Structure formats: structure tokens, C-alpha cells
Amino acid sequence: MVHRADVLQSFKKNGSIVIVGASLAGLRATEVLRKEGFAGRLTVIGDEPYEPYDRPPLSKQVLAGWVEAEHTTLPRQHPLDDVDWRLGIAATGLDLRAREVHLADGQSVDFDRMLIATGVRARHWPKEDEARLAGVFVVRTRDDARLLRQKLETKPRHVLIVGAGFTGSEMASVCRDLGLTVTVTERSASPLIGALGGEIGSIAGDLQRQHGVDLRCNTTVTALEGDAERTLRRAHFSDGSTLDVDVAVIALGSIRNTEWLRGSRLAAGQLGVACDAGCRAFDINGIITDDIFVAGDVARFPHPLYAYQLIALEHWGNAVAQAEAAAHNMVNSEAERRPHISIPAFWSIQFGVNIKSVGLPPFADQVVIMQGSVEQHRFVAAYGHKGRTVAAVSFNQGRWLPYYERLIASAAAFPPTPPAYDVPIPLHPVPAKFPAANAPTSTPTIALTGYAPDEICATYLEEPPMTPVTVESGGKA
Amino acid sequence: MAGKSLFQQVNDYAHRANPYPLYAEMRKTPVLGDEDGNYAVSSYRLITELLHDPRLSSDIRARPPDDPKQQAVAQSSISPAFIRTDPPEHDRLRRMLTRQFGPPHTVGMIDNMRGDLEKYVNGLLDRMQDRKQIDIVDDYAYPFPVDVICKLLGIPPEDEKRFHGWAEDIAFSLDPAIGEEGRKLIAKGLVARNELGQYMRALIDVHRKQPGNDMLSRLITDSSADGRLTEEELVSSSVTLLIAGHETTVNLITNGTLTLLRNPDVFERLRHEPDLIIPLVEETLRFEPPVQFNSQRTALADITIDGVTIPKGAPVYLMIAAGNRDPVRFNEPDRFIPDREDNQHLGFGSGIHYCFGAPLARVEVQIALNALARRLINPRLVVDPPPYRQSAVLRGPRHLLVDVDGIKP
Amino acid sequence: MRVLVDLNRCQGYAQCCFLAPESFKLVGEEALMYDSGPDDALKEKIERAAASCPVQAIMVEYMNGHADEMVKSGTSEAEARHGA
Ligand SMILES: Cc1cc2nc3c(=O)[nH]c(=O)nc-3n(C[C@H](O)[C@H](O)[C@H](O)COP(=O)(O)OP(=O)(O)OC[C@H]3O[C@@H](n4cnc5c(N)ncnc54)[C@H](O)[C@@H]3O)c2cc1C
Ligand code: HEM
Ligand code: SF4
Questions:
Q1: Where are the domains of chain A?
Q2: Which pLDDT tens digit goes with each residue over C21-63?
């Protein structure tokens, strides 16, 4: 009889692991695998031609011109020279039965275990001919950021930012610092509404306006107009007005990179790749797989604090923590597995304010200012869901967040007992004003086929429908 | 020792040379109340939690009226400094002081002091070159930070003779008021604070009339979105900077030297590897923290942590030195590992009161210890353990006699 | 060299900004901006900054003369959670 422990030891020595996606999650997983003693064949496949780099600086230091786009390569915490890096090559398919990943160059790589870390890409302007106009940008990659930076150096007269999520707002902030004229459009009532809700989002809106941003909420761009040279000249808005602009940055959120998994029989689609708290992917029927793991922006996972709903978090910290958990679980026995249930956290820097969040604000129905002063843009707000504290957000008051993190972890009552000082008295909870949860997409993508109990299973329908444009969210349930 | 609570024993001078076994004992009950109503918190996790808990106050005025420290503050002729206040006052004052000390408003000031600091410590050592024995405290660790903070603030260093006694009395009054002895220390501290306040008031007057480029002058003339510092705020802030600026640093230099003398292999390594000083100073802050515990916190609400409720109004002592050796957080906590990784010690506190002067203190101590390593020839500890100063909070040797074969040029 | 700051852990104590102002800057009261690819000449300053960070949020990688010898500091997410 072969012992499970022997199997694991032999896998750690001679097995093979493939990681698809060579960015933050992919790199962290690679490091942990080696750190935890995986000595077998380790292949990392990434479609970008670069060593893993960090994205948050792209809309901040890089756009501001302080740090070059090339200078964002992530440090390695562990020597990784014996890793087979296949950079600049996309994975095009996954054959679960043969345990092979197919690559764009026609080759394939076999594996015992695999990690999916393909993240997301920028959602581009939906009208393709307009999206191709010179002067229209998105920012997700290093190359994107370099191109936009080069454009900003030419001192454009008017920059339009379409979408006031985190990335859009950060870029507006940088543009103002550069002295550029900036208009931001946002289809909902305030900036950052998906991540922070309308109540706190409107404070972010005040911040934008105070810094000279022409912020137009409840407004969408209906068309981008170019001249004969196919260069952007003008934007048309839903209120019928127009504006002459020479740069438009599309910041309408992201699309999960799951197309390559179509046909793989994994539970992968527009919402991401579903997995359990141990980062193991579900197959299309909702049965857990043993050897396929998921981490980072592309993953959807259940969280006990949030009713085990599958959540996808496009946050740096989530990519790191989930990759570490996934990699750990890939090379450890069942008994030593670790759940990925850390409390979500993110930050954003805009208009001189450090915005930090712990927990999951979009899960909340109410919000209350706990400490500090909203006028001075120094405060902590706590978020509640049905009488329980589920999140907290600080503007320039980050040192108090560990306290709220503990309240969230312990499922403390909402509103929490007030702090002892610097408190607006009385605490005054108000609706958090999150937009209605994403309505399910109107076109179905999965259906059941077969009738007999041993036949019935889920299948993909034909081509995925065109995804609707939604505002970028910093982490929506 | 029967009858004395663990917390009282920590404060007992008899245990000054080695309180660490008591701290280890304390960690077995990480939230420990005694019959005086004091609560000592000693695990790393809980200390960190409480340093970020907005129900814990640094303002002694929040204590019941019969508390000796509360009474001392009430009788003081100068207002509490920002180290003894809560937000929003604290944050406003700290912002205004930071403007003249560090980034983003004042960039590079501390870093630019390096050259002068090196010159100063080497000058001290030059003057001892023909000595065979030195007292690290009186000859080295004390004069250096005093000189630095005086020059930084714009206080004539020769006035040290005037404020030395006051500073010491104030430092000692930080200890918990235990028994008659404790009350006396607090009363002495109050007198000293009022007198030092008088002295500062006069000095501020001089700087106001003839502003120089020192920090005090800049604080007097500065104005920002937060407005200007009032006379009262200037007095209390500068008193605090003066005390905090040297009463702690002297201990870190001395504790560092003592630890190096007790670990000659590390001392030797430092001679060849001067960069080791960077993690070594952090490890000293963990291993022998000059501020052993925060002694001025008060619970403003009933605070329940790990099942224990600290009642509203209770004095809460955050035992930094115990947390720094918590085996749950640090591997081999009782070993001095100069290049320890992941050394998130609490030596400078944490949260909004995180040490204001930490960047300065680090530079001072790195320079002071490296100079000793480079120049002392065959240094040997004369008495081990050395005699300690009175204070339990600001713990450090009173003298540290070292025999040397000579001092290199 | 390569530098990374875990800005979820960073609490804006600005110790790094004192020690290596060329690479670490405070924007407003507590928002940290940093150079993720600073010049090797700044190695010593950046090492000091990383060692001084009260929450050990700064990770550094540089080649130590020999191409294969890597030096790092900072704490991983998992290590950090262990005691915090
Ligand atoms: C401009 C910007 C600013 C940000 N700022 C913040 C911030 O302030 N705070 C915060 O918390 N988070 C921020 N984020 C989010 C953070 O960067 C992401 O959460 C993080 O990058 C996720 O890492 P990941 O590895 O999961 O995915 P990604 O970084 O998206 O990496 C996925 C990688 O896989 C590659 N890939 C995709 N498909 C394939 C395929 N078929 N074959 C091979 N490779 C493939 C992609 O090209 C990419 O390189 C920001 C993101 C951006 C873009
Ligand atoms: C090795 C030397 C030092 C050590 C160990 C040390 C330690 C500490 C600690 C633990 C605190 C937190 C107190 C609390 O939480 O209540 C603190 C705060 C403080 N320290 Fe230091 N300190 C040192 C040097 C200095 C220096 C050189 C200065 C001045 C230039 C200074 C000025 C301050 C001030 C003003 C505060 C209060 C900060 C606030 O309340 O916001 N310290 N120090
Ligand atoms: S020292 Fe650490 S906590 Fe402070 S600003 Fe720098 S990175 Fe952030």
C-alpha cells in the first residue's frame, strides 16, 4: 500500500506544476511553492513579455512621471532561477483529462497540478472604431501606462476620464497634479460607488471637485469623435453636451481572463473562476477539482464572513494572500491545508488622501462615521449589514483600521460602540447607497443537458454574450 | 516577595537588573489586574491591539480625581503635551510639530545631521583617549543625545546643568504611582515640570524676539492649515521633546553597549561589519527596550479583550518589554540575534503615538554604537549587572563602567 | 534594485521617508509613494529604511555583487499574520 505521505513527498520531489499568469499572484505562488520545498518542474506561463511587475504604481507614480514603467518589476523573495518562465506566450486552452495546458505557440505543457492566475484585463471602450482613435487609452499594463504617460508629457489641453472607480480617480488626481484640465464622467451618482457606496463616494467626489476636477456624475459618454486623421477630438455626453478633448482614458473596470478556459469544463466565465476557500477550482458541475487551483483577480471564492457568497476581489492584497494559500495547499496534505479567509483589504491614493478599506463594504446596507472629521478628509467610517459590522474605510486615518478589522473578524454589532474621542456624537448610521447588486446577465451561458442521473451535467452554451459595460468596482460581492 | 503583585514586583527596584523572568510570568495571564486596580497587558498581540484601540486614552485627565497622576496634571502650570493627549488635539499638535521635523514639509533634516553626529561622538572618544576606564553613561551615552536635542531645538547645551535634575525627576515620575514612594516621585515630577516649563517659557521668548534656524524658532514662526502653536502648546511640546529626546536615547545606547559587551562575538562581528548596526539597533529595541512599558494609558470604556474586561477608568499598562519577548511572536525571544528577520518590535510603540523622534534616535544610536565598536580596544565590563537607574519605565543602567586597553584614533 | 511596499500594512509612519527621501515620499498626511526601481547607489539608505519600518512592510531585492546571491527583507503576508 502506498502511503499518502509518500505520494506527497514524491510529488514534491518529482512532480510538475504549471502556473498560468505571470503577475503578482503567479509570482507569489511560485515563491511559496519553492519555499515550501517543491523541487519538481515548475513552469510559469505569462502572455506579457515581462517578468512579473506591480500594477498599483501604474496609475500613481508611473503616470506622475516619477517612476518609469520599466521600474516596477516585483522583487523576488526567493531565488527562482530554476523556474521555467515562458513569457510572452499565452495559454490558449486547458485539457483537464490529459492534464495539459495548450500554448499559443502550438506547444503544450503537462502538469500534475496547476494554478490559474490570469487576472483581468481592462474593459475597453465598447465601440471599436472609437476605441482605436489616437488619444484613447486604457491602463492595465506597463505598456498602457507608458503610452499614456508619454501622451501626458505632451501637455494635452483636456483629459477626459471615463469612469470614476479607483483607477479613474487616481489618474484624475495625477493629471491635476500635472496641472492638466480634467473632466471625469461617472454613470452613477458618485465616484467609487461600487467599492465604497454613494454615501462615502460623495466625499470622494467633493475631494475631486476641490482639486479642480470637472466631475460629472450621472453622466455617460455616448460617443468619442475623431477627426480625419483618426485622432480624438471631442466627446459626446448623455446630457447632450459635448467637450473638446485630446485624451480619453477609459476606466470602466475589467474583464476576467477566462476565455482560454472555455471548453475546459471548469466553472469559469465572465465572473471569474469559482473555487473553494482552499483555492481549488470547481468544475462546471460545481464539483471540486483536486489539482486545479485559482488565485488573484480571476478567482471567485466563498468567504465565511460574507455568507459564503462567491466574491471576486480585484485587490493587491487578495492576490498575495490567496496565492500564498493556494501554493501552500498545492504542496501540503489535506490536514495541513489553509483556508483563504483573511479579511479583505485595499488602499488607494488620490488627491493627497490615503484611502484604506478593510472588510467588504459592498456587503453593507448602512454606514456610519466613527471618528474624525469628514470636512478635513480625516475619518473612519464603519459599514454594517443587518446589524453586524462588515467593513471599515478610512481617509487619512489608517492607523485605527486594525481596531475595526478586529470588530469585523469578531462579527461585532453595528453600529459598533463608539470610540472614546474624536467622535461625532451621536453616531448617525445612514444608508450606504450601493448600487443594486449586479443584475444577472440577461443571456445565459451555462445550461444543463442529459436526463439520466449519470448523464445530466452542465455545459457551456455557444459564444459568451457581449458583456455589458459596468462601472469598475473595487470589490463587489 | 509574597503579597506583592507581579506588576508591583516589576516596579520594585530590586528587579531592575533583570525584570524579564517577571515579564515571562506575566505573559501567562496576558491581561492581569491587581488589587490597586492596575491592568498590565503583556502579550504581543494584545498590546498591539490596544495600541490601535480608540477606547484607550493617553490623557491622564481621564482618570478618576483621586488618581495621583490625574492630580499632578491638574496642578501643573503647563498643559499636557501631545504625548498625553488624544485625537483630535493630538493629531493636530503632532502634525504641526512634524512640519518642522520631517517629511513631507521638512525633508532630509535628520539624515543631514549624520556628519555632525559622527564628529561629535568621535570628539567625545578623542577626549578619553588616554583613559583605561570609561563610564559609558556619564562619559558618552548621556552627553551625546543631550547635545543633539539641544542643538536641534535651539537650547544652549551649557544649560544642561540647569535642566538635568528636572529632566531626571520628570522621567522618574513616569513610573506608576505605587505607594507613598510613588506619590513622592510624582510630586517631585510635578515641581520639576513646572520649573522646566518656566525655563522654556523664557527661552521661547528669546527665540521669538530673535528667531534662528533652530526647530524652536521655526515652530514659533510657522503657520499652516492647522494655524499656529499657542504659547502653552510651544512650552509643553518643547519640554516633551527635550525630555523624550534624551532620557530614552541614553538608555538605548547604554543597553546596546551592555548587550554587546555581554555578547563579545557580536561586538567583534560589528567591528568588521558596520552595516550590521542597522538590524542590531532594532534588535536592541526589542531585546532591551528603553521604554519598558507605556504607563499613562487609561480605559475610557469597559474594554473586553480575550475574555477579560478592563473597567472604565482603569490605568492600563502596555508591557512593551514583555510583548517584545513573546514567544508566540518571536522565535527564540530571549536570544539577542543582531540580524533577526521580521523584527516588528514595539520598542517605539505603535499606532498614533508611535515615537515622534524615532528617526533621530536610530541615527544617534547607530552612530554611537558603531563608533564604540570601531574605536574601543578590548572593552570589558567591570560590573555585571551594572547599577540601574530608579525608573522602571525608562529602564537603563545608572553607570556602565568599561575597562579598555585604549581607544583607537 | 527592486523595492515593494505592502501598502495595506503600511501605516504611514514615514520612517522610510526620513531615511531614504529619494525613494520614499509622503503624499499628504499618510499616503506613501515610493520608487519601485531605485538606483543601486541608494542601497544602503533603502536597507536602512526597510529595517526601520515599524510594520516591516518594505521588501527589497538586489544582487549582492554575485549575480546569484539575493538579499531580501520584509515579511510575507502569511508570516505577518502569524503574530499580528
Ligand atoms: C492601474 C492599477 C492600479 C491598481 N491599484 C491598486 C491599489 O491601489 N490597491 C489595490 O489593492 N489594488 C490595486 N490594483 C489591483 C492589483 O494590481 C491587482 O489586484 C493585482 O495585479 C492582481 O494580480 P493577479 O496576478 O491576480 O492578476 P493580474 O495582475 O491581472 O495578472 C494576470 C496576468 O496573467 C496574464 N494572462 C492573462 N491571460 C493569460 C493567458 N491566457 N495566458 C498567459 N497569461 C495570461 C495577464 O496578461 C497578466 O500578466 C491596481 C491595478 C491596476 C491595473
Ligand atoms: C531610543 C530612543 C527612544 C525610544 C526607545 C522612544 C520610545 C518611545 C515610545 C515607546 C513612545 C510611545 C509612547 C506612547 O505610546 O505613549 C514614544 C513617543 C514619543 N517619543 Fe520617543 N523614544 C525615543 C527617542 C525619542 C527622541 C529622540 C524624541 C525626540 C526628538 C522622542 C520624542 C517622542 C515623542 C514626542 C513621543 C510622543 C509621540 C506622540 O504621542 O504622538 N523620542 N517614544
Ligand atoms: S516606514 Fe513603513 S509604515 Fe512607515 S511609511 Fe514607510 S513603509 Fe509605511
A1: 4-55+71-121+255-336, 124-252, 345-431
A2: 999 999 999 999 999 999 999 999 999 999 999 999 999 997 6
**Cβ pair A127, A44 in contact under 8 A:** no
Per-residue model confidence as pLDDT tens digits over B121-156 = 999 999 999 999 999 999 999 999 999 999 999 999
Q: Domain count of chain C?
A: 1
Neighbours of A98 (CB within 10 A): 10
Mutation to probe ligand 2, out of B281, B348, B364, B393 (largest number of atoms < 8 A from CB): B348
Residues of B in contact with A378 (CB under 8 A): 91
The rounded distance, in Å, linking the Cα atoms of A397 and A407 is 17
For residue A435, what are the contacts with CB-CB under 8 A and spacing of at least 6? A188, A193, A194, A198, A471
pLDDT confidence of residue A437: 63
d(CA A20, CA A294): 10
Chain-chain contact of A354 with C28 (C-beta, under 8 angstroms): yes
CA atoms within 13 A on the CB side of B285: 26
| Chain B residues 318-347 with CB within 8 Å of chain C | 326, 328-330, 341-344
| Cβ–Cβ below 8 Å for B103 and C83 | no
Which residues from B are below 8 Å from A403, CB to CB? 49, 52-54
Sequence-distant (6+) residues with CB within 8 A of B35 are B5
Tell me the pLDDT tens digit for each residue of B335-357: 999 999 999 999 999 999 999 99
- List the grid coordinates of B85: 493627549
As a whole number, mean pLDDT of residues A242-271 equals: 96
Which of the four pLDDT bands, split at 50, 70 and 90, describes residue A475? Answer: very low
Q: Does A324 touch chain C (CB under 8 A)?
A: yes
Ligand lying nearest the CA atom of residue A46: 1
Q: Which fold has domain A124-252?
A: FAD/NAD(P)-binding domain (3.50.50)
The arithmetic mean of pLDDT across residues A196-214, rounded, is: 98
Half-sphere exposure of B78 (CA within 13 A, CB side): 28
What is the C-alpha to C-alpha distance for residues B13 and B15, in angstroms, rounded to an integer? 5
Here the ipTM equals 0.94
Q: Which residues of A touch C7 (CB under 8 A)?
A: 56, 316, 347, 349
Q: Which of B344, B350, B370 is the best residue to mutate to test the C interface, defined by the most C CB atoms within 10 Å of its own CB?
A: B344
Query: What's the pLDDT tens digit per position in A130-187?
Result: 999 999 999 999 999 999 999 999 999 999 999 999 999 999 999 999 999 999 999 9
pTM of the model: 0.94
Distance of CA B215 to the CA centre of its chain: 20
What CATH number is associated with residue C32? Answer: 3.30.70.20
Q: How far is C57 from chain B (nearest CA, A)?
A: 10
| pLDDT value at residue A1 | 58
Q: Domain containing C45: what range?
A: 2-81
Residues 2-61, chain C: which have Cβ within 8 Å of A? 2-4, 6-8, 10-12, 27-37, 59-61
Give yes or no for A372 touching B (CB within 8 A). Answer: yes
Which pLDDT belongs to residue B1?
A: 45
Cis amide linkage into residue C21, ω under 30° from 0: no
Å between C26 CA and nearest CA of chain A: 9
CATH number of A345-431: 3.30.390.30
Residues of A in contact with B313 (CB under 8 A): none
**Contact at 8 Å (CB) between A139 and A122?**
yes
Please determine whether the domains at A4-55+71-121+255-336 and A124-252 fall in the same fold group of CATH. yes
CATH number of A4-55+71-121+255-336, picked from 3.50.50.60, 3.100.10.20, 3.10.180.10, 2.60.40.420: 3.50.50.60
Determine which of B47, B52, B84, B350 to mutate to test the interface with A (most A C-beta atoms within 10 Å). B52
